[in-house]
Design goal:
Layout (H helix, E strand, L loop, with lengths): L2 H21 L9 E5 L27 E4 L4 E7 L3 E7 L2 E11 L1 E9 L2 E8 L2 E9 L9 E2 L3 E7 L4 E7 L4 E7 L6 E13 L5 E3 L6 E4 L2 E13 L7 E2 L3
Antiparallel strand pairs: 1-2, 1-17, 3-6, 3-16, 4-5, 4-16, 5-8, 6-7, 7-10, 8-9, 10-11, 11-13, 12-13, 13-14, 13-15, 14-16, 15-16
Length: 240
């Protein structure tokens, strides 16, 4: 890891913890970003024993454990299926499908006064996007966000991650061409994903996103994984 990456990570984490101290935190978050592995000698592990390298098969004879992902670790994003974007524009439904969700980010786990969680920063990229309706429209360029701040949110029974623009304002710009909808539209608001299982998060109608594309509501629907950049291994989210 470069010194620059480490300093960026530490700065974001310190800013977030300062915000927690000012605003206060309700509930006891138990959202972390962990890696399943055989711990090195002296390395602190955060779970029971597992037989498999994905930490899904618990067994007291297993050598695998989850360990907190190293400070300011860089992660890569991968989708588990087609990215669906549903958009109500001019009172007419529009639909966009994207083949690939990518990008990278760092995360830093923290524990403060019994509260556990993570904070991070990174970008998202949607590529291979096709406009399903209305007919004749197309998107020729990948949809890439500005730098986003990511924060774990504990709701008691579920864990969410929120995504907001680091500098405020819009999250991304979507350029539509070839039809009556042609133009550039700003994606604004707060995106939220919700944990589906220990490896997968999902954007959906119930994950809590509050976003608009232009002046109209938009919904993202797809599942995704984060994996460590160093090993390509899917990380584990500890659910509340």
């Amino acid at each position: 890891m470069t010194l620059r990456k480490r300093l960026v990570g530490l700065t974001a984490c310190c800013m977030f913890l300062a915000m927690l101290a000012i605003q206060g935190v309700s509930g006891a978050a138990a959202s972390t970003t962990e890696e399943c592995k055989i711990p090195a000698v002296g390395e602190k592990f955060t779970s029971k024993h597992f037989l498999d390298a994905n930490c899904e098969n618990a067994n007291t004879e297993g050598e695998y454990h989850t360990t907190t992902v190293s400070e300011s670790a860089w992660l890569i994003r991968t989708n588990t299926g087609i990215v669906k974007i549903d958009w109500e524009v001019f009172a007419s439904p529009a639909e966009i499908n994207c083949a690939t969700y990518s990008g990278n980010k760092f995360v830093t786990s923290y524990e403060k006064e019994g509260v556990r969680g993570f904070v991070g920063e990174g970008t998202m990229i949607l590529s291979g996007c096709k406009v399903i309706k209305p007919l004749g429209c197309f998107i020729s360029e990948p949809i890439k966000t500005v730098p986003l701040l990511e924060t774990s949110e504990d709701l008691g029974e579920v864990m969410r991650t929120s995504y907001v623009a680091k500098e405020g304002g819009y999250l991304a710009t979507v350029k539509v061409e070839g039809c009556a909808l042609a133009g550039e539209y700003s994606l604004k608001g707060t995106l939220r994903s919700q944990s589906a299982n220990i490896h997968t998060e999902e954007f959906s109608a119930t994950s809590g996103s509050e976003v608009k594309l232009g002046e109209w509501p938009v919904r993202f629907t797809f599942g995704f994984h984060d994996a460590t950049e160093a090993s390509g291994k899917t990380v584990v989210r500890e659910l509340p």
